[in-house]
From TrEMBL, chain A:
Gene3D superfamilies named among the record's database cross-references: Aldolase class I (3.20.20.70), Photosystem II 12 kDa extrinsic protein (1.10.150.320)
Cofactor(s) listed in the protein's UniProt record: [4Fe-4S] cluster
Domain Radical SAM core as annotated: residue spans: 61-194
Name this protein carries in UniProt: Putative DNA modification/repair radical SAM protein
Automatic annotation (TrEMBL), chain B:
All residue ranges annotated as the DUF4130 domain in the record: 105-250
Lineage: superkingdom: Bacteria
Protein name: DNA metabolism protein
The organism of origin for this protein: Pedobacter yulinensis
Length: 418, 254
């Protein structure tokens, strides 16, 4: 008995791990029924795997049987791997017992498509209903929306899940058609729009009637695989931007492709995953969401790729030196937050602190800005006098020489000689 | 330079603030530092003031702080005290004096403001880590037990989180360094001290029969969810520092 469940967990956790979404934030469920669990607004990462990724949810597939044959997926029909399926009760007991021991924040439940979309979605729904209604579980539940499932099933699932997501898989329609001819971005847009409509409808009603039930309170997210196809960073960021804008997504995840098949359409097995590129994409994503940047400022036809050597904010600044230097003691918040080396938290502290007097270099360092980077772009009370302007390439040289990137030693796609 | 020596309790620090203003008033702010007996090094030029903790004086100072600081800053003050570090108490004392002299708490250019904010941040981080890294084991009598050894005294900060979350189970979180724990049963939360200090690892005989299976499943899951081709031990250790490993189920040998 225990050997069988161990084997199932190994197979179905292994198959689910390429979905990088891990967040458990944004839940608002309170433990007001004397049951188990409550949401933590910012989410909690309970542990980290040896690859440095956070583990906050029990992330599993209900089954890895699948009728589709998507080239980039381990569970594709034509792949010769062990298959398994959990029963509803098995998922429920695993979730409850892991949660009681404080191993996890909740459940991330996805599934291969067996039989058809409706049948699969019904099974997922059975699990969440049992957890919420019978076990009085108030922890976090992230549920995959199965494209093509009956809208009524999706609507019902939204009443029990905290977050729902569907993966775009590939940044462009063309790449998706190449690797997964049976899928299209249109299949993803329809259910995203359906859930989005539900979210705004319920939040309108909540304004009038406080007892309105929750509907996907932590919103929706999606994921794109990066590096399996030759899409540019511009393609990726523009797609992400349009999904943020049109479907109110909470997150877009970028997953560096890890070669898992000998398919000639994709990088060969053994190719290193593009970790640095993935990192730069996340940085650009943050600039869009928290720093007031427009996507076309970060990538455009002239600069379709993010610079791997420099973070996207620094490379934007070097292309737009006319905006600098920014005077820390007088500039508006939106400009301070655009200075390379100053983050949101530091910018807020600066704006507070300067009310009590002009700020000097030592204070800025204490506040926590990356002064080695920021120094070329700011003026403060005791900035040293500089004669003549630096050229962008000079600043780039200084910044690169002053810090050593954590990626320098093992650049992505670079073979080790020794 | 005037020196004050207090016993290191919250009451002591607040009383010291009271004594400082009683001696010096608001008009002649002299520099003063606060010590605990352990951090005090006598010198030939000044006589320290020994502060006797006084509940009434402390309450007056706390009330005064409440009028000048918002909730977030009052929490930072409390966190700073829970850090149990002599330098933190020193900064806390100077910060309180600065606030009573009319200083703005959000002036991050000020050294005391900066110091209190950064100590409070470390304490909040430790609190968050405890919420993440506590691992309960089910004992045969149904009690969910976890041992811990936090860097700072954060049990008071995590009590609410665990009470709300595990409302339908009986649990105990025990701080082995400070020798006290939080026990929760049937809606009642209480602070307890065990007569015999518990071991780091609970003997298998005391565990519930299902415990070994779920601990094993969790270890399996931890292994299968890892992607070996992305291995990054530096990042792993940065997120889960080694000093926490001894209580983490997934890090213990099978």
């Amino acid at each position: 008995m225990s050997d069988r469940i161990r084997e199932k967990l190994n197979i179905l956790a292994d198959a689910a791990k390429y979905d990088v979404s891990c967040s458990s934030s944004g839940g608002t469920r309170k433990n007001d029924n004397g049951g188990l669990g409550n949401s933590h607004a910012s989410g909690i990462c309970h542990t980290y795997t040896e690859d440095g990724r956070c583990v906050s949810l029990l992330k599993i597939l209900l089954t890895n049987h699948c009728i589709f044959d998507c080239a980039f997926c381990v569970s594709r029909k034509s792949n010769d791997i062990k298959r398994a399926a959990f029963t509803v009760q098995e998922v429920v007991s695993l979730t409850m017992n892991f949660y009681r021991r404080n191993y996890i924040e909740g459940l991330f439940l996805s599934s291969g498509i067996f039989k058809n979309a409706d049948f699969t979605m019904e099974r997922l729904l059975l699990v969440v209903k049992k957890l919420r209604l019978e076990e009085r579980f108030n922890g976090y539940i992230h549920l995959k929306t199965i494209p093509g499932a009956d809208p009524a099933l999706l609507q019902e699932a939204g009443l029990y899940a905290d977050r729902m997501s569907i993966n775009l898989e590939m940044p462009t329609e063309a790449s998706l058609k190449l690797l997964a001819p049976e899928k299209s971005h249109e299949d993803v847009k329809k259910p995203l729009a359906l859930i989005q409509a539900g979210i705004s409808q319920f939040s309108d009603e909540r304004r009038l009637i406080k007892a309105t039930p929750k509907f996907v309170p932590a919103g929706q997210s999606t994921q794109m695989v990066v590096g399996a196809t030759p899409d540019s960073d511009k393609d990726i960021m523009f797609t992400a931007n349009s999904f943020y804008k049109n479907y109110g997504l909470k997150r877009v995840y970028y997953s560096g492709y890890i070669p898992i098949s000998h398919d000639s359409r994709m990088p060969v097995i053994g190719t290193k995953p593009p970790l640095l590129r993935e990192n730069r994409l996340y940085q650009a994503d943050w600039l869009m969401r928290f720093y007031g940047f427009d996507v076309a400022e970060i990538v455009n036809d002239q600069f379709p790729h993010l610079d791997e050597e420099l973070d996207p904010k620094l490379s934007w600044a070097l292309r737009n030196l006319e905006h600098f230097p920014v005077d820390i003691n007088t500039a508006p918040y939106r400009m301070i937050v655009r200075v390379p080396g100053i983050g949101v938290a530091s910018a807020q502290k600066i704006v507070q602190a300067r009310k009590s007097g002009k700020l000097h270099v030592f204070q800025l360092k204490k506040i926590g800005i990356a002064y080695n980077k920021a120094r070329y772009f700011i003026r403060c009370a005791d900035s040293p006098q500089v004669f003549g302007d630096f050229h962008a390439s000079q600043i780039k040289g200084y910044v690169l020489a002053s810090g050593r990137s954590k990626y320098m030693r093992q650049a992505a796609n670079q073979l080790n000689l020794f | 330079m005037h020196s004050f020596i207090c016993d290191g309790s919250m009451e002591g620090v607040l009383t010291a603030v009271f004594e400082y203003f009683e001696r010096h008033g608001k008009n002649s702010p002299d520099a003063a530092v606060l010590h605990t007996p352990s951090s005090w090094v006598p010198d030939a030029f000044s006589a320290p003031v020994h502060v006797h903790s006084d509940a009434v004086k402390a309450a007056r100072v706390w009330k005064g702080l409440g009028q000048r600081l918002d909730r977030a800053w009052l929490r930072r003050v409390f966190c700073c005290y829970l850090s149990e570090q002599p330098e933190a108490l020193m900064q806390l004392f100077s910060f309180c004096n600065y606030v009573f002299l009319g200083g703005a708490p959000d002036n991050y250019g000020n050294a005391h403001v900066q110091a209190v904010a950064s100590v409070a941040r470390s304490v909040e981080r430790e609190k968050h880590r405890m919420e993440a890294f506590i691992r309960f084991e089910e004992l045969e009598d149904g009690l969910f037990y976890a041992a811990a050894d936090p860097d700072f005294n954060v049990l008071p900060l995590i009590a609410k989180h665990f009470r709300d979350r595990f409302a339908d189970q009986q649990w105990l979180i025990y701080d082995r360094r400070r020798q006290y724990g939080l026990h929760f049963k049937a809606g009642q939360l209480e602070e307890i001290t065990l007569e015999t200090a518990p071991l780091r690892q609970t003997p298998a005989a005391l565990l519930d029969e299902k415990e070994a299976l779920y601990a094993q499943l969790w270890k399996d899951y931890f292994k299968s969810t890892n992607i070996p081709s992305r291995k990054n031990m530096k990042l792993h250790i940065q997120h889960v520092p080694k000093r926490y490993w001894k209580y983490l189920t997934e890090k213990l040998p099978s």
